[in-house]
Structures are given as C-alpha cells and as structure tokens.
Amino acid sequence: MSQEDFNKQFVSDLIAIQPRLRAYVLGLLADTHAASDVLQEANVVIWERRGDFEPGTNFDAWVFTILRFQVMAHWSRRKRSRKTGTLSDDVLHSLAERAQGVSLQMADMSDALRGCLDRLTPRQRELIDTRYATNESVKSMADRLKRPVNTLYANLSEIRRKLHDCIRRKQVAEA
Q1: Based on the structure, what is the number of domains in the chain?
Q2: Is residue 10 part of a domain?
Q3: For residue 47, what are the domain limits?
Q4: Is residue 144 part of a domain?
Q5: What's the confidence (pLDDT) of residue 84?
Q6: Is residue 116 in some structural domain?
Q7: Rounded Cα distance, 41 and 21, in Å
Q8: What letter does residue 133 receive in the DSSP assignment?
Q9: Which CATH number goes with the domain that contains 53?
Q10: What is this structure's pTM?
Q11: How far apart are CA 10 and CA 5, in angstroms?
Q12: What are residue 73's phi and psi, to 5 degrees?
C-alpha cells in the first residue's frame, strides 16, 4: 500500500471513529469544553503517530489507547493545578478502561442497528429516516403524508420495537 493510500485509509478510519471517541471522552470528563480540547489534542497525537500503526492490526484499540493516555494526561494536569483531593490514578485508569468498554458496546449496537435498518421495508425505512435523520416532528410528517397522527405514532412505535428486537437477537447471536 502506498503512503498516500495508507493516509487516505487512516483518515477515513479516524473520521469514522470520531463519534465513539467523543462519547468516550465525554463519559470520562463530563465537561464538553475539556472533552473537545482533549479529543483535539488526541487527534493531533494520533495523526503524528500514524506511522506507528501497523495496518491489519486493531485500529480502534490503537486509537483508544492513545486517547486514554491523553485523558490521563488531562487528569494529571488538572490534579496538579488543584489543591483539593481528586481520584487516584488507579481509579481514573479503571474508569478509562470501563468507558472504553462501553464505547465498544455502543459501536457493536450501532453496527447491529445499521444491519437491522437494512431489514426494514422501504416504507418503514423512509418513516424512520424522516423522523430521526431530518428530525421532522410526527405532527409535521402526518400533515405532509396526510395520515392521522396517532397512526403515525403507532407505526413508528412498531418499527422501533422491531429494531429493538432485531438488535437484541444480533447481540445474543454474537455472545
């Protein structure tokens, strides 16, 4: 693989994982400004160290390891700047590992959801996409589609139940 192809794939993979990275950092820091700063710093480090990544190995694990160290560095800087007590490094490390596990579970659920969405009928998919991708209100959808609001609520509820059941079946099958 050429360096240009490697860089293109690397950027594509890094962009795809950003929502999970953001969720991970927000879960650990619970401060949107600090989380944005840490994620931005981590992305710089990840890009600078891209040469250390071995294609064919686990990209997600490699990126999350770098991000975990960036979060820990943030905690260390914060700990030094405060005179009040903070959590121990062991507790912070444990929280970081747990948050990474939750992030991976979320990714698995997201993958399952994508597969389940593909199983919907075109009409069901259109309703879900309209409601959630465009954030159109059910009332507005009902007016536009000339359907009763209650019927549309019932249709959406049934589709959500089907998606929920499908995701659970996929999780059980993978367990």
Answers
A1: 1
A2: yes
A3: 1-85
A4: no
A5: 42
A6: no
A7: 12
A8: I
A9: 1.10.1740.10
A10: 0.51
A11: 8
A12: -65, -40
Helices (H), 56-137: 59-81, 89-118, 122-128
Query: Which amino acid appears at position 23 of this protein?
Result: A
Closest CA to 157 of 129, 128, 123: 128
Give which of 103, 109, 124, 25 is closest to 68, Cα–Cα: 25
pLDDT in tens, 94-130: 666 666 666 666 667 777 888 898 999 999 998 988 8
Count of all residues that appear for the chain in the document: 175
Within-domain flag for 26: yes
Helix count and strand count (H, E) for the chain? 7, 0
Q: Say how far apart CA 65 and CA 168 lie, in whole Å.
A: 29
The token pair that represents 163 in the structure block: 């998606």
Phi, psi angle pair for 30, to nearest 5°: 55, 30
Measured CA to CA, the distance from residue 7 to residue 10 in angstroms comes to: 5
